[in-house]
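#lab-general

N.A. 3:47 PM
ok so I finally got the sequence cleaned up, no stray characters, all 141 residues accounted for. can someone with queue access submit it? mine expired

B.Y. 3:52 PM
send it over

N.A. 3:53 PM
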Amino acid sequence: MSQPPTAPPVTQEIPLQCEDELGRPLTFVSSFGYDPGDPYAVWLTFHIPGGDVHWAMARSLLATGIDEPAGEGDICLWPNLDSDGRAVVSMDFHSPEGRLVVEARTRDVYQFLARTWAVVPPGAEADNVDLDELVDELLAG
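B.Y. 4:20 PM
back already:
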């Protein structure tokens, strides 16, 4: 199966707000990434003092979380307002190591998603998946 050439990845630095263990406001930068070769996923890399932490989530989950509550289990998102009344997307991440609840400005998240949609429109993700290569990888184990 011949695939069209893959567009370059999309990345964007987005500031995230949360509270530290003492309830003080904390802002740090996260890298949001999208690779058209893995068209269903977005990657978040939290740049924190203890080292980078990577999370993957469905691009559709991130898009849904802008307008309505979405997700269950490890990642939940919902629209919210920050303390200044600005639209944000709240994101709740759970892992065996702990929990992190952050807020990102909705406009930043939407800008990132719009850039990914320009590369691979919603609904066209399957056009960017090489099924033959995927089967070969699965069989190679």
